[in-house]
Here is the input.
Amino acid sequence: MPKAALLLAAPLLASLAGIAQAEPFKCPHRGGDFTFGQEANVPSLDQMASSAIATRNIAMNIFEALTTRDEHNHPILELADSLDEAEDHLTFTFHLRQGIKFHNGKPMSSADVVASFDRYKRMGFERSTLDNVDHWDAPDAATFVIHMKRAQPTFLEQLSSFSVPIVIIPAEDRDDPPRQLKTIGTGPWQLVDFVPGSFAKLKRYDGYVPNPHYEDITGFGGYKQACFDTVTFRIVTEPGARVAGLQTGELQGVEDVPAKSAPDLKGDKNIVLLPLLNWWIQIMLPNTQAKPTDNLDFRKAVQAALDMDEIMDAASDGNYRLNVGFQYPGQPDYTDAGKADYNLHDPALAKKLLQSSGYKGETVAILTNKDYTSMYNAALVVEQELKAIGVATRLEVTDWPTSTERFEHPETGWNLYFTAWGTQPALGALATMQFLAPPTAGYWPPAGHDDPDVVAAWRDMTNLPSEQGRNDAFARMQKLVLDRAYAYPFGSLTKIQAVRANVVGFRPFRIPRFSNVYFRD
Here is the structure.
């Protein structure tokens, strides 16, 4: 796992030097409404409290953070102008960019940063990022200082993750309850209207101040300009409707094109296909608080029954790759640790484990959604594979927001939950395995009973001084998670995004970016 400080150094040196550059990006054409077909309903626009990609798609065009990632997922500064790290690595001093205003016109200061960190510490979905922080303070309006309990070589890597980032909000919103945050950020786009299940509309924020250290957008940072007048996220959960909207021009871009539709669209001169390899890893998570998935032998029986090729073929129309664990092959952090527990497809072993678990025919509730077709189709196959070994099942199909809400409340009676991890694996092993670390471990251990071996591996991933030591800890954690069936990774699929041919500057990324994108005259 690369050292965050090293990853940060090159972009920072470039940015602090101002980059000997050409003119910053200017919109060749301004105006128009870009309508984007999003495939899933949005649980909330509270970016601090939701890990859902449907939230991130919209919210990350509205909010910004002190740090983010560039085009290659290297940490860079965003709302911070510069950063001083003490020689003992116990103090990080952020000097804020000046002239930044929130969408309500209020100037941003360090008091807003303090309030944002305070709120995240209370309710942020990945608040374990701040476990090693002793305290923070603001010696003046332009400075924010983080004081660590002990040196942590991965801290800047965690802080810069945009999986569930610590976005900066006005101080007066610090006490907004989870998922009820007022949608006021500092980004180039501000919220106009949001109707859950239907659409979200953003407009250009004319008070936006681009980052002068860059020439163009990079990742979720850099020099950003809103060229469209408005961007409308239209929720279109039916794949055929997204394709039809793209063909007629009702939609200028779509989040997902079904693989079976791609050949026909490839010949349409009005449409540009944008494939993204390794878009996400299809995942099923067990509820270890509920019977019978609280029993290890039962979870292992489920694991032994799974045929990953069959599941992924149904999930992706054949557009997939099998891979062990929680990183994509070819990534620096990739390991096949735990491969002995992957893709067993051994019904005899599954039945034997089922018997040893003491399973007495209890119904297993399989929670999935129809917004993401790949998750729904994967669930249909898993249900059949479990029935084949003698497990009684009940398929519970909701929309995506309801599914994620129930997942976050394991007492609601579900046993197996279908999701996908995409942004997190792309950000690296640390961002991914945080999903399996307390206080929000995805397998939902009973309160106060997190697996001590998994927790120890996570702490080593986070704190060990050597890169090799942290890599070894990741391999150990992945092997533990697979061996104890705390997660069932199926494989990775390729996502195909698309835009109309008159759209210029739209580059596929983990999250759709609408800055520096415009319509051709």
User: Anything to note?
Assistant: The CA atoms of residues 237 and 420 lie 16 Å apart. The radius of gyration is 23 Å. Residues 1-21 have pLDDT under 50 and may be disordered. The domain at 278-495 is CATH 3.10.105.10 (Dipeptide-binding Protein; domain 3).
